[in-house]
Amino acid sequence: MAHSDQTENTENQEGLLPRLWIYTNYDCNLSCSYCVAESYVGADRRGLELAPVCRLIDEAAELGLTELFLTGGEPFILPDIFHMMRYGLERNLHVTVLSNGILLKGKRLHQLEALPHRELLTIQISLDGSNAQTHDFYRGVGSWQKAIDAIHRLKAANFHVRLGTTHTPENSHDLPAMCQLHRSLGICDDDHIIRPLVRRGFSGKGMAISLPALEPEVTVNRDGVYWHPVATDDDLLISPHIFPLAQAVEQIKSIRESMLMVTGGASSRFR
Description:
Strand content: 15-25%
Distance between the termini: 13 Å
Structural class: alpha/beta
CATH topology: TIM Barrel
Helix content: 25-40%
Number of strands: 10
CATH superfamily: Aldolase class I
Shape: globular
CATH architecture: Alpha-Beta Barrel
Number of helices: 7
Oligomer: single chain
Number of domains: 1
């Protein structure tokens, strides 16, 4: 398993941040009780349309960003999600979509299989336990089995699958069993990401986290550009203007350089 705060170089050779995170939407087909994005069934979509997403991808590529992360909400609710993925893949970006996996069957799975450059594509499935009792505590009854079924379908279709686990008091004891499970599913240790529960959104417990403790990763939603994908709260807002993306990236780099001078930098990463 890999922890999300592991030390890595987060800049490319030109000193640019390598990842662009996009909150595609905030509505979801689950209502997880600890959701940092405050997503739930019936939530306001607050989505980005296809045109601005494509422009963001173009500008990110021009800036030298190499990875695109699409998150929500549940991105696969969106009719345009496959167009967004295709656009990023065709521009040679490594594309990761964060999902609970439930919708990835039937027509949607066929659309996924039809995408080009699948070697650049990762589907990250949220899985918080080795069994239904542990996983479903936060995510809802029946969600564990649906996630497991989705993983089997994706692996059978030869997709690169990564697991994202939120480390909570309720699943601490279960992490060794989780590792045994993901190995049995054909998912390697490096593709099991464990991130801490944070006190944001719907979560009333967990790690209290603020901007200086986070290594920046450019994050965008409909309302602006943010320091980090852990949340799109006002205290992490860098600019209310999405375009041009380069201006917000320069602001992020400037803030980070100032932090490095004072504190030696931050280290927490989130996937």
